[in-house]
Known about the structure:
There is one protein chain. The protein has 190 residues and is of the alpha+beta class. The protein has helices spanning 39-50, 63-70, 116-129, 131-134, 156-162, and strands spanning 3-13, 29-33, 75-82, 85-94, 99-107, 143-149, 166-176. The protein is 24% helix and 32% strand. Strands 2-3-4-5-6-1-7 form a 7-stranded mixed sheet, with helices on both faces. α1 crosses α2 (63-70). The longest helix is centred in the middle third of the chain and has 14 residues, at 116-129. It comes from Streptomyces marokkonensis.
Amino acid sequence: xxxxxxxxxxxxxxxxxxxxxxxxxxxxxxxxxxxxxxxxxxxxxxxxxxxxxxxxxxxxxxxxxxxxxxxxxxxxxxxxxxxxxxxxxxxxxxxxxxxxxxxxxxxxxxxxxxxxxxxxxxxxxxxxxxxxxxxxxxxxxxxxxxxxxxxxxxxxxxxxxxxxxxxxxxxxxxxxxxxxxxxxxxxxxx
Length: 190
């Protein structure tokens, strides 16, 4: 098996004032919360956004695993739509002591390069900061964090930094190289 060296960067914001919002893109772009836990829809987003950048950790999840994850307090999925078509998403997960992780964020390949990503990240980060307002019993957010890696899109790190995230950790690990799964087997070469 072939291995590749993967660098993972962890970034954070420690105050809502750290967020530097992107401009709203032109056209009919809307970001809407997917309020009904839907394993089918969430798996569609995960596979469609991450298929060409080797998101594989959730592909083997069962329906029950997806539902259990999505139905937890403080887990939210915010979806960007371009003229009604799902273009990408951001998944938030409340953690202990007022910490919120942006677990997944990205766009379907056909929607990249249209300035939707900066807007979606801005919107999703703002929703991470006000997450406790929608979930009684959660502590107010005091920190929002995420990680990105060298397998992600070439503009990912720049987008995070432009939105006000700062680096707090870097790790380099060897990973087994996997074939790009696409949203369905064989969708992308690689």
